[in-house]
Amino acid sequence: MSRTVYVNGDYVPEAEAKISVFDRGFLMADGVYEVTSVLDGKLIDFDGHCKRLARSLSELEISNPHSDDEWLAIHRELVARNDIVDGMVYLQVTRGNPGDRDFAYPPADTAPTVVLFTQSKPGLAESPVAKTGWKVISIPDIRWGRRDIKTVQLLYPSMGKMAAKKAGVDDAWLVEDGFVTEGTSNNAYIVKGNRIITRALSSDILHGITRAAVLRFAREAQMEVEERNFTIDEAKSADEAFITSASAFVMPVVEVDGAPVGTGTVGRVATRLREIYLEEMRKAAV
Ligand code: PDD
Questions:
Q1: Ligand 1, from 55, 175, 206, 277: best to mutate by most atoms within 8 Å of Cβ?
Q2: Which residue's CA is minimally distant from atom 11 of ligand 1?
Q3: pLDDT per residue over 7-65, tens digit each?
Q4: How many domains does the chain have?
Q5: Coiled-coil ranges per the record (predicted)?
Q6: Which of 140, 142, 90 is CA-nearest to residue 117?
Q7: Sequence-separated (6 or more) residues with CB below 8 Å from residue 141
């Protein structure tokens, strides 16, 4: 399959896409990204991703190369050119190519590098694993302190995913000072009765766009939401657990470090939230 990808203003076959070896994204992970899911050819929660992109760029003093309307037009064009029904659009903006390697930022007028590509995932929302749930292990969270910025420094999350795979499970929950921060590429939750517990927003975690929507829907459905730290032991003794992300939506978690969560099967709250999330977000998709 040859995709059409977007590089700095051009739509090109993936084999012809080129980025400089001096690009700050390549040399220094000096860039940010967004992943927006596509269902039925439409973008899910696009506005939320655009807002977070603007914030990530501003925190790193990289100028935002496009208006929200321009970003939307590029996303839609890529979805159309690649015939994406279900899948994702990946977007990356780096500090660009200063023409050499230097720790200091290049002059502010250095053009950022902009890359977007699509990933086709037919049936993304009907993933069979949502019926059986994920198993997770815990690992120490040794990432940097600005996890609220969605940077492309993904080596440790990637190592975490590999540790999970080697352990025969689906993902790793990251633990710092005894408390769960988040999953390798998702936000983490436990459920006790009618109460959903998840870490409060800070620079310790990524401010998930899916998290914001799911907590809003949970409150609207009269569920209680408690934004506070929780431990792995608390997760093991919870009734349910789940994660959220733009690509997994709401995914039940049925096992933590080898111990079943609740009955060890997919729970009622996670199932309901997944249904509500998909239904509402499909309606609001652009
Ligand atoms: N990851 N926490 C981390 C560390 C993440 O990387 C992600 C998203 C999330 C969930 O954020 P959102 O709901 O906005 O997707 C939380 C994306 C999906 C990725 O890296 O592919």
A1: 206
A2: 208
A3: 999 999 999 999 999 999 999 999 999 999 999 999 999 999 999 999 999 999 999 99
A4: 2
A5: none
A6: 90
A7: 174, 175, 176, 181
Alpha-carbon Rg for the chain, nearest whole angstrom, is 19
Select from 139, 138, 135, 140 the least CA-distant residue to 170. 135
Instruction: Quickly tell me which residue has 């890359």 as its tokens.
Output: 115
185, 216, 242, 249: residue to mutate for ligand 1 pocket, most atoms within 8 A of CB:
185
CA distance 131 to 126: 9
Q: Domain of 116?
A: 4-122
Counting from 1 in the atom list of ligand 1, the atom nearest the Cα of 157 is 4
User: Domain check: are 112 and 177 in the same one?
Assistant: no
Residues carrying an active site annotation: 150
Is the same domain home to 141 and 109?
no
**Distance from Cα 246 to the centre of ligand 1, integer Å:** 6
Which tens digits make up the pLDDT trace of 224-271? 999 999 999 999 999 999 999 999 999 999 999 999 999 999 999 999
Q: Whose CA is nearest to atom 5 of ligand 1?
A: 185
Distance 185 CA to ligand 1 centre (A): 4
Q: In what order do the strands lie in the sheet with 31-39?
A: 10-13, 4-7, 113-120, 87-94, 31-39, 42-43
208 C-alpha to ligand 1 centroid (Å): 6
Instruction: Provide the CATH number for the domain around residue 85.
Output: 3.30.470.10
Distance 41 CA to ligand 1 centre (A): 21
Q: Which two tokens stand for residue 3?
A: 């995709």
